[in-house]
Structures are given as structure tokens and as C-alpha cells.
Amino acid sequence: MMDLFVKGVFSVDAVTPVSVTEGDSVTLNVQRDDEIEWRFGDTNILIAEIRKDNKIACYDDSANGRFKGRLKMDQNGSLTITNTRITDSGLYKTRNTNTLLNTFSVTVYSRVPVPVITRDSPQCSSSSSSSSERSSSCLLLCSVLNVSHVTLSWYKGSSLLSSISVSDLSVSLSLPLEVEHQDKNTYRCVLNNPISNQTKHLDIGRLCSECCCCGFTEAAIRLALSAVVGVAGVVVLVYEFRTRKLQQKKSVKNAATNTDQPDEVASE
Fold first, then answer.
1. Could you give the CA distance from residue 76 to residue 85 in angstroms, rounded to a whole number?
2. pLDDT given at position 1
3. pLDDT of residue 64
């Protein structure tokens, strides 16, 4: 729960910013006058009040019922909003008769998910134009789904490499990173909003260990070996074909010999 204590009487222009994560509770603390009322939004909808007889009233059904069962008010006039929602963002004002006492600008942020790191493609790009000096690298993507008011960033150690931000809309974000498969540096992808963050550390050995991220020389050797294996397969097929032809000729010759032998015996 987030508590914010405000002392004294504030002018119309004094606005106190408050930030809270969706689902958490927030308490807006004030000093009570003889009677006090809380109003919400640009249209100043009455949502709670304390009268001179010290009776507390919370109007849960006001503001289209958005606060149903989630408003609490104590004898000091402090207002608590439980299980906050994105739609709870806005201006909250306290009044005494016709005098504005306090104004809070509340912003409710969505919970920040842990970003996901994947390899973008089984194909590896080349970081050098010279074929004799080429070294394969892995293209990675750090991604998050359905987020708003966040920044997605890649860090190498403590240094920021790149970042991308989104404001109002709930969208999906992806940020690429290209690394050498033998890279021993530490990389992390961070998703943050103004009050929280989530970090995913990159495991280069796990994501870039397959053949696609082998060095160029090793890849060339594998290709050459594949060609040799292919030629050997052709030689074996030719050998088997010739062997079968010889066996067929022997079989025909033996059959002819066996056919002629009984006639010779009879003539004797």
C-alpha cells in the first residue's frame, strides 16, 4: 500500500502526484476539517464524505460504479482505494463546503511482465565483408506483449545499448540485439515503467550454441564433409550396381550348365 500524507490547506493550483501499481492499494492522507468531501475526475463526482455529525459515507456506485466495494475513509478524512485499476487514474480533490483543500493526481500503472529473449532466426548474419575474416553472430529479440507506458532496453553490463518506449496504447514490443556466439560479456533486457521494472538476463551459451552460430571456418568444414559424404554415396551405389550385374551373369551361366548336363548322361 502506498501512503501519502499532505498537511495544511492547498490552493487550487497545488497538485500532488501519486503513482501506484495496478492491484495494489493507495491511501491519500489529509488533515480533516469539520466536514470534508472527496470528489473524482474532471466532472468532480462525489465519491466520499464526512459530515459534521462524524458520519462517514462512501458512494461506491458513483462514477458509473467503478469504485464498487473499493473505497474506504477514516475519521481523519483519508481516502483508501483498494485493488486499484487503470481506470482509477485521475484527479482526486477534497473540499470543505465550497473551498478546495487538496488535489491529488493519481496514476495507476499496469504490472510489468518479465521480458522474453529468443533467437530471431536460425540463420546467422555476417559481421564482416571479407569471407576470410567472417565471424557468425546471433540475432536475438527481447519481447513483451500488451504493455503501455513502458520502456524496453538492452544493456551490456551497466551501459545502455538501445531502447524503445510506448505511451498510451497497449501494444507488443520487440528490440533486437546482435552478439557473437563467443561473446563473454553480460547482457540483460529490462522492461520498466516509472515505478517498477523487470529484468531478463541473456544466456548466450544456450541461445547461440547451435550450428547456426558456429564460426565461418567450421561451417565451411561441415559443408565440405557433407559433399564428401555425398560423393562416397554415389561410389557405393555404382559398386552395388556392378556387383549385382556380375551376380546375374553367373546365375544365368549356371542355369544353362545345369540344363545341358542331363542330355549328355542320356546319350552315353
1. 25
2. 53
3. 82
Contacts of 86 (CB under 8 A, 6+ apart): 22, 108, 110
Residue 69 and residue 67: Cα distance in Å, rounded?
A: 6
Query: What amino acid is encoded at 37 in this protein?
Result: E
Q: What pLDDT score does 54 carry?
A: 86
Q: Please tell me the distance from the alpha carbon of residue 69 to that of residue 25, in angstroms, as a whole number.
A: 13
Query: Which residue is listed with cell 520502456?
Result: 151
| Length of the chain as a residue count | 268
- With beta carbons less than 8 A apart as the criterion, state whether 191 and 151 touch: yes
Question: Can you tell me the distance from the alpha carbon of 101 to that of 81, in angstroms, rounded to the nearest whole number?
Answer: 19
Q: What is the DSSP letter of 14?
A: -
Q: Name the pairing type of β-strands 150-156 and 136-147.
A: unpaired
pTM: 0.65
> Which residues fall within 8 angstroms of residue 143, CB to CB, at 6 or more apart?
115, 116, 117, 118, 172, 173, 174, 175
pLDDT, position 250 = 63
Element (H, E) at 225: helix 216-267
Classify the C-alpha dihedral 32-38-41-42 as positive or negative. negative
Question: Along the chain (268 residues), what's the average pLDDT of each consecutive run of 10 residues?
Answer: 43 80 95 88 92 88 87 94 95 88 94 93 49 65 92 96 88 92 93 96 86 42 42 45 61 54 43
Phi and psi at residue 129, in whole multiples of 5°? -80, -20
